[in-house]
Design a protein that fits this description.
This protein is α/β, with parallel strands linked by helices. Helices cover 39% and strands 20% of the residues. The strands form 6 sheets. It has a 9-stranded mixed sheet with strand order 5-4-1-6-7-8-11-10-9, sandwiched between helices. A hairpin with a 2-residue loop joins strand 28 and strand 29 (742-747). It is elongated and about 105 Å long. The protein starts with 8 loop residues before the first helix and ends with a helix.
Amino acid sequence: MISRSYTNLLDLASGNFPVMGRERRRLPRVMTVPGNVSEFDEDQAYSVSSDNPSSVSSDRMIIVANRLPLKAEKRNGSWSFSWDQDSLYLQLKDGLPEDMEILYVGSLSVDVDSQEQDDVAQILLDKFKCVPTFFPPDLQSKFYDGFCKRQLWPLFHYMLPFSADHGGRFDRSLWEAYVATNKLFFQKVIEVINPDDDFVWIHDYHLMVLPTFLRRRFNRIRMGFFLHSPFPSSEIYRSLPVREEILKALLNSDLIGFHTFDYARHFLTCCSRMLGLEYQSKRGYIGLEYYGRTVGIKIMPVGINMGRIQSVMRYSEEEGKVTELRNRFQGKTVLLGIDDMDIFKGINLKLLAMEQMLRQHSNWRGRAVLVQIVNPARGKGVDVDEIRGEIEESCRRINGEFGKPGYQPIIYIDTPVSINEINAYYHIAECVVVTAVRDGMNLTPYEYIVCRQGLLGSESDFSGPKKSMLVASEFIGCSPSLSGAIRVNPWNVEATGEALNEALSMSDAEKQLRHEKHFRYVSTHDVAYWSRSFLQDLERICVDHFKKRCWGMGISFGFRVVALDPNFRKLSIPCIVSDYKRAKSRAILLDYDGTLMPQNSINKAPSQEVLNFLDALCEDKKNSIFIVSGRGRESLGKWFTPCKNIGIAAEHGYFLRWSGNEEWETCGQNSDFGWMQIVEPVMKQYTESTDGSSIEIKESALVWQYRDADPGFGSLQAKEMLEHLESVLANEPVAVKSGHYIVEVKPQGVSKGSVSEKIFSSMAEKGKPVDFVLCIGDDRSDEDMFEAIGNAMSKRLLCDNALVFACTVGQKPSKAKYYLDDTTEVTSMLESLAEASEASNFSMRELDDAL
């Protein structure tokens, strides 16, 4: 079994993903790839998808979470399992299609002896469609109590590890354990998955690198991820040493879900600042373009299971719990708090706010009671013992100051409380108070609202009045959805105390209106609505999965899938050389930066090798070679002086020189540059206020660059500048355009596309219609050239049977149909064409000599 043997953690963390040994076991379904799981080789990870048909035709959902939605107990030597009806992962199936098969992959909350793991796994698979993941105790401790609870959990709740005693320093071995555990979950998923048919839905921060493992094996897998915790701001998240690894792993999902826009916004900002990615909203959907794939961003707070709460309410009523508590707190006004024992729940701040209310509003002394129920801590979190001591001390102090015989203002319950009893407390509470300083969602207010509404269709007296009040921290995920709650900053104890008084003093009519508003939302946005909406968006985002060609690239957590049009393919040098030899009139258009010269090169001048190849190509009388660049004509003219017959189109084609022996001509329709006197002061103003920006002054254009500025502020300034310039230049013959970290103002009608069409037209007029076109570029401006080639064909500027090779540099979405990986491959191809030309010229000279 996997649990008995796991590989070197350093290998895992470094991206060397070896196959873990496992014993052969029965599988629930026919696998897409023939053979046993143990026979899978990781080299298959780069395959596009299975070539074999799926064993089933209907969709299936595989839900992967740290914990299975099961309760487990061992009695008299035998195991007993049952569904955990309170588990979100079990409840979410209510929103999925009835005919959709659901499979769960996760771990159990109890330890299972290694000798029993096979039998337990088979029982859970047969009876519950659950696939358990087992791992050694030492790995479990490092994974959950270590990296999850001591690294990710505090950081995602805005707690930085300032010292070893508070938060703990980053421990590489814990990260390795996290990766190893995610690997084990991956091994379990691939035992049962049919990648062409199944959806995979991964949950929460425990499994954030799992998407990379799955995408690496199955490039077209339909996979969603939902984060149930907050996602911190970029200023906090950037302190994580493995920040980029986790971001890139999440981006291997098709859809990433968050509870609130704030969490999504923080994630998108991290992607922008750390990975340079841009997002956009189309028809209400937010998407990130990532190597040809659109990664969807879903914003949808989770809801509650109405049926489950109604059932619990019925049991509470039958047991008489509500009556018992009503009698116990008769004549008292009850405020209720229900929280986990966690430093981020703000329990002590709630107690201090209660103390403040009693001190400032003496009329509540002897009447107002705060019942604080504390659930056990979910793990060995940070500083739990310390915060527990503070809470108990506050309870003693407040009860000592304001308590009297028969009255205690604070009822502190830190023993297990049944769900039926909690429901009864909801019934009698006048107000629920949540003062968490940071919480992913928190469904306590939702449950309270439904309980105060009472049993649907019941006339029982215990169904409670149709009114409720909430005092909710503005730092919890459910706060934006509860517009009728009194929102507070829990750190402001005085203001929170006043909010408690306001909630208790509010008129019944106002409480009724607020309650009705909340209940309408909560009852319609339940857990079924949430899961149904997530699946719909996942289906929508994956609809084009099998229409594109996909392949994997990159190693370790830099792995990603490139998805491109099926007609987009790598340019074959032997094929183009063959077509090149047959052509009689060739036009070769080459971009400079990023095509002939690497973008990151310090020395921007072309190498002697490139000049030799270009000169050899220019010697061939069948060729017309042009450098088409955004650079100025002075630098380009100087660099390419050795190539006498090469043509140059400078500043995106505004200036054109047909060869080194000819003069520069102007292609722009307007030579009046008076508009520059308007533009330059505006750009200077933005440059002064935007650190890291600069102005590039060309003869025909002005460019404002903000590549080195803060991404967010630079983008904001660029947008404002664009609107500003469009306004002041409305009557000028110029075009204002935004590009990748630039805003450019240039004469209208000037582009690489227009100068390309001019070259083709001129060659046709000279009786040399082009029958071979090679056009290579790497950025957005070059897309105009690729588009112009298609237009030239329709305008009959090229021969009817012209061979066209529009090629972009790098594997990315483009209007070109071909690609080369980098400038080295471009140089290699030019060398091959130059050799073909030299061989042809040599043969012609031999023929001339013979004649």
